[in-house]
Structures are given as structure tokens and as C-alpha cells.
Amino acid sequence: MAACSRRLDKFIVSLRLLRNLQLQNERFLSTSVCRWAPGNDSEPPKFIPPSKPVIIDKTQAVATLRKFLSPEFIPPRQRTNPLKFSMERKDMIRRRKILNVPEFYPGSILAVSMADPNATGKINRFVGICIQRGGKGLGATFVLRNIINQQGVEICYELYNPRIQKIEVLKLEKRLDDNLMYLRDALPEYSTVDPDMKPVPFPPTGEVPLNELKVKMRPKPWSKRWERPKFNIQGIHFDLCLVPKQMEHAQKWAQPWQEYDMLKEYDTSKLEQQILSEVQQEMSK
Amino acid sequence: NFFSILKTTTWFEEHLTEDNQEYMRKTMAEEYRRQTAEKLNPLKDEPWQRHEWTEGSRRVGLVAVKLGMAPIWTKTGEKHAVTMLQVQDCHVIKCLPREEYDGHTAALVVGGKNVSPFHRSEHYMEMFRNAGVPPKQKITTFKVSDNAIIKPGTPLYAAHFRPGQYVDVTAKSIGKGFQGVMKRWGFKGQPASHGQTKTHRRPGASGPGGDPAKVFKGKKMPGRMGNIYVTAFGLKIWRVNTKYNVLYVNGSVPGHRNCVLKIRDTVLPTRGSTLLSPPFPTYFTEDEGDLAEDLYDDDLFIHTEPSLTLT
After folding, report:
1. Is residue A188 part of a domain?
2. Nearest CA distance, B257 vs chain A (angstrom)
3. Each residue of A156-209: pLDDT tens digit?
4. Does A187 reside within a domain?
5. pLDDT tens across A139-159, in order?
6. pLDDT score at A45
7. Where along the sequence do coiled-coil regions lie (chain A) (predicted)?
8. Which of B21, B58, B88, B235 has the most CB within a 10 Å radius?
9. Is there a contact between B152 and B111 (Cβ–Cβ < 8 Å)?
10. Nearest-CA residue of chain B relative to A115?
């Protein structure tokens, strides 16, 4: 299409033609672009070879256009020399240039391929729902949970482990909480993910879809007392498993003064913006 | 008779106006920069004779600051934890030849991490003035063989150590204050229940009994714990960053973050660095030429390489 820039009107006509000719896998063939103008009969038409077909492969993940900074880049509030964090960040960016780490949140479904000397074909693929993202800097981890053959399995992967070959996001979504450890005490249907699931396409711009699912729990006792306010869980359907009296009793452990504690405030907005611009600059080099 | 002496000590800012205080600070910073630059110029400041490495010679160490810890991975996929140590403004301050020091070995006094001169005594500042170097927070002596003495005022860099070498790191451990016997010496204490009256973390018996009829000297008892010099031996160096002068040292190191430590070549006989041929007596920038920004150990996985496929 870039070959014919001379005749603008013919260009527009050919564009309309091309739109009609669009195929399912969107191959743009510009053989019909350069139309021979009726006015100019002096020279025979020069052979202009058709431009190469542009194949847009929609199955491959597109880099996100949302302004997303992975939480492990934000340094914790410590009396450490910022040089240490900047050196770690450089190493993290070097690794991210080799391994594409996509944007994901706790609640998204991921598939991780890792090199394993004991696996068949040497590569181990695990599909699961991300229940927690922890750690800062190079030691950042995420935990994937799935139920395989009626057995719950949780694997904690290190993001910057060199044995990881590929991380794919099969379904990008957020949940009402950052920490989905309560799925251990929920009914198994909420943690099962089909290992052969096909990736669900999601747009690279716009808001990340929030799944406001309220999960049904197994009967008590649970591994942790999830109804207590310190966990601040929004994603459990408490009305089905707990009596209002139990909910009130749980509120005894509430610490309402913590939200007014000024020493616990840690405003990361400016730091985030600075680090995000730095990371985006380095990644584009 | 008791004489009360009028204390005339004051801090440097007390009798100065604000402009003068600022001026003092600025001039101090400029003076530091000028002094360090002077020392780097080999023409102005003639260096001493550099000798070759011989069997049994010991070379100088460094003074560094502990930055923090980070994970690293080897080429076989194993994870190790490393401590990052930054060599900030390390200079040789004084040379004590064999006769002056103890008659057997020569010694070099090395200092690290610049600090303001306003809160240090005149006596402390004297030796830095003689060396022509800004005052340092920590000064240590390194016992050195005669062929490894260096002129006072030469800067020391992290490239003095190479990846694959083993080092010993000495630092003051974190102070825990007055601690009981269970934390300080690891005693077992007593059970929490089953009739124990007011005895859960006490030391229990203090000796054999009637025969010695005394408590031996050095009996482990509660007391102040920590804030003593502790050495970690045989730590491998995985990586050296020459741009920021940072060493990546295996495992953990005594001391809190941003504390000043003393690093020297190992005394362990099985981890000698004879095979590596590190720079002797120290690393000079004009000698070696341009080293790469990062020097890595052979077994270390560098993040610019493709992912590991264990076959």
C-alpha cells in the first residue's frame, strides 16, 4: 500500500475495495491498489511488484498499553540505599527483555512453562489461577492454584527464575481481593482450571475486567478465620455460611484506629510514576 | 579536691551565621572532590614501586558498606542469596613498615566512607591531613607482606577482588541489648506448663555442685548481646560491578544495612586465590585499562542470556 502515494483518489478507492476484500485472518494484499489512470496513455504500465502481505497474528499476545507497573518494582519502605534498588531493577529489566512477563493480577489464569530435568520433554507446563503475588525485586513470586485429579495443587513460581521458559496469561481479570488464599477453603469448583484451556483474548487498552464473584465456602473449620476484619475479604459469600451473630463476634477483632495511623501511611504514587517512566524507557531501548 | 572544669566544647555551627554554615559545607565538599581527584592523577602524586606477587605474600583488603541482599541463580538453575557490598571512597591512609608495627609484618591503615570533619576531633583529623584524604567513618589495619605496601592516599576499588575469589568479611553484629540466656546462648529453658512456678526462661543450674563449690569463670549468663566484631569466613564473590564499585558476596554478612565492613582475602587454606591471579598489590585504573562494567563468575547465570534449558 505504501508503493502508490501518487494518486490519492485512486488510493481511497482502493482502500474501500480492500475493506470489502478483507479475509478472516486479515491478509492485506495490495495487488489491486495501483490502478492504471485513464488519462495517461503515453507509457505502458510499469510493472510494480505487489507489496509483501502483512499478516497480523491475533493469537499472539500484544504488549499491554495500559500504564501497568508490576508490584515488585516498587521498593518497600526501608532505610536502604536507593542504589541497591536501582541495580536490582536493571537486572530485572535485563531478564524481562528475554522473557516476556505479561501484565497479570491475583485472580487471572496463567500457564507457566518451566525447564525441569525430571519432566518428560524437559519442560513442565502448569495452568492455574494466581492467588497471590509476593516479594519485591528479583525475588518476586506468584502462586498458582489448580485442582488436578481431585487434588488441590499450589505452585509458587519465582518471576525471575531463569528456568522459566514462558508465562502466558490465558484469562486476564481482577477479583475483589488481592489475596485469594481463601480458595483453599472454598468449594473445589472455584479453583479448578481446565489445563487445556484456550487463551481468552483481551484488549490491550481499557479497564481490566473485575470479576465480582462471591465464593461459596466449605463448612467450618477453615484454615484461617477469613471472616475477621484483618483479612478484609470481599470475595466470600458470608451470608450462606455464617450467622449474623458470628459476623458480629468477628468484629471484636477489628482495629478501626489503624486507618488513622499516620505512621503506617506509605504513599507510593510519585515513586511509582518515576519508576514506571524509567522502566518503560529502558524496555523500549 | 574536686575541680569543675568549664566546658568550652561547641558544635561547629553554633557561632556561625547561616551563610557561613552553608559556605563551610560547600567548601568541604569541594575540598573532598579536589583531594580525591589529586590522588587519581599519577603525575602530581608519584606512586611507589609496585612489586610482583610471590608465594606467601598477603595483600591489602577493602572497607565497604553493606547495601542489602538479593537472589542469584547459577547456570544449573540453583538459587543462592548474595549480599551486595559497595566500596565507597576507600583510601589508604597510613603505611606502617615492619619495624614500626610489630617487627614481623608490615601494616596498612585503610579508611572507608567519607564523613564530615566538623564533628571529629583534631587528633582524629591529623592522620587524614597527612595523607591528603577526606576523613573517613571507619579505619582498619590490614597486616600485609612487605612487597604489598601502597602509598598513603591511593584509592582502592571493588575491582581489587575478582569473581570466583573467596573473602572474609568482618563487621560489628547487630546489637540486641541486654538479653536472656535463651536468646544469647541458646539454652532450652523450662516447660511452659506442668507445674512450673515462675520458671520458663531461666538458666537453671549454674555448675557441678559441692566439689568445685564455685561457678567457673566464663559461665554463660544473661548479658549484653551483639555489637561485637564478628567475621564470616570463606565467602565466594559472584559478581563485581566496576561502575558503582559493588561486590556480590555469597550468603549473609554480619551487621545491619548501611554498616561499614572490613573485607580481606580468606585465611582458609582450602580457598586460596593462587589460581585467579588477582591484582597485586591492588587494582590501579591506569594499569589494567578498561574493565567491563560487570565481571561475572563462570557459574553465574547472567540475565541477558536466554532462559535455561536443563538437559
Report:
1. yes
2. 7
3. 999 999 999 999 999 999 999 999 999 999 999 999 999 999 999 888 888 899
4. yes
5. 999 999 999 999 999 999 999
6. 81
7. none
8. B235
9. no
10. B309
* Greatest distance between any 2 Cα atoms in chain B: 85
- Residue type, position A95, single letter: R
The total number of structural domains in chain A stands at 1
Under DSSP, the state recorded for A162 is: T
Q: Which residue has the cell 489475596?
A: A179
pTM, full prediction: 0.83
Q: Do A163 and B310 touch (CB under 8 A)?
A: yes
A211 Cβ contact list (under 8 Å, min separation 6): A107, A173, A174, A175, A176
For residue A89, the domain's CATH number is 2.30.30.790
Residue with cell 515488585: A72
What is the distance between the alpha carbons of residues A190 and A152, in angstroms, rounded to a whole number? 11
- What does R_g of chain B's alpha carbons equal in angstroms? 25
Q: Is there a contact between B84 and A84 if contact means CB atoms under 8 Å apart?
A: yes
Domain, as residue range, for A153:
71-277
Distance CA B46, CA B24 (A): 30
Chain A nearest C-alpha distance from B88 (Å): 12
More confident: B52 or A89: A89
Which residues of chain A are under the pLDDT cut of 50?
4, 22-26
Distances from the Cα of A83 to the Cαs of A76, B171, B205, B296, in angstroms? 14, 21, 51, 19
At a CB cut-off of 8 Å and minimum separation 6, what does B194 contact? none
Please, are residues A209 and A240 in contact by the beta-carbon 8 Å criterion?
Answer: no
Beta carbons of B303 and A137 less than 8 Å apart: no
* Average pLDDT value for chain B: 90
Per-residue three-class SS string for B154-175: CEECHHHCCCCCEEEEEEECCC
Strands of A149-228 (E only): list them.
151-158, 164-171, 174-175, 210-211
Asked if residue A227 is part of any domain, the answer here is yes
H runs (alpha helix) in chain B: 18-40, 98-101, 122-131, 181-185, 285-288
Tell me if B252 sits within 8 A of B235, measured CB to CB. no
| C-alpha to C-alpha distance for B227 and B213, rounded to whole angstroms | 34
Q: What residues does B224 pair with on adjacent strands?
A: B178
Sign (positive or negative) of CA dihedral A221, A222, A223, A227: negative
Nearest Cα residue to B28 out of B135, B128, B188:
B135
CA distance B200 to B181: 11
> A122–B305: do the CB atoms touch at under 8 Å?
no
Domain-located, residue A90: yes
- State the best of A78, A89, A101, A163 to mutate against chain B, taking most chain B CBs within 10 Å: A163
* Cell numbers representing residue B132 in the block: 591528603
Q: Kindly state the cell numbers that stand for B303.
A: 540475565
Q: Which residue of B has its CA nearest to A163?
A: B308
